[in-house]
Amino acid sequence: xxxxxxxxxxxxxxxxxxxxxxxxxxxxxxxxxxxxxxxxxxxxxxxxxxxxxxxxxxxxxxxxxxxxxxxxxxxxxxxxxxxxxxxxxxxxxxxxxxxxxxxxxxxxxxxxxxxxxxxxxxxxxxxxxxxxxxxxxxxxxxxxxxxxxxxxxxxxxxxxxxxxxxxxxxxxxxxxxxxxxxxxxxxxxxxxxxxxxxxxx
Length: 201
What we know:
Strand order of the largest sheet: 3-2-1-4-5-6
Distance between the termini: 25 Å
Helix content: 25-40%
Number of helices: 8
Number of strands: 6
Structural class: alpha/beta
Shape: globular
Order of helices and strands: EHEHHEHEHEHEHH
Strand content: 15-25%
């Protein structure tokens, strides 16, 4: 089971200016998040950001924020509580014709619509709070969730690792930045291969 760029979206959770100095391995984690966003943009994968209580914790890192199509300000720890799911899952298209006016027994049963990009690649801080709660809610909402471990962290290593254990147990796939990059590419003949490779190296 490999990631497909055409079915993916990237969510970057709370890489905030006032939070990052306290995060275990913060500079490396932020660098990987920026790299992920740059690769996503090269491959036309949508990139979304979130910020927890930005009036207190400040905005996301400016370089990362500039790579996001939109950034969701939130007070709940889980971004799905504040509408992230609506960003990730386009609204169902209305049924054509006048079928609603037909008697129930004559209406066609419609198959539920699959989301156009159901694989959510997610990374962020803190791994055991906002990232964990957002990812678990996305799993509950029937998205496939891929957690980029080397772009996630917490203030302590123990909390970060506990989050990874719990996410894996709940059905999330644990991956790394390079796994995501090369699965999105699939081939060294991909037109963006050299550009992606220069970011990874």
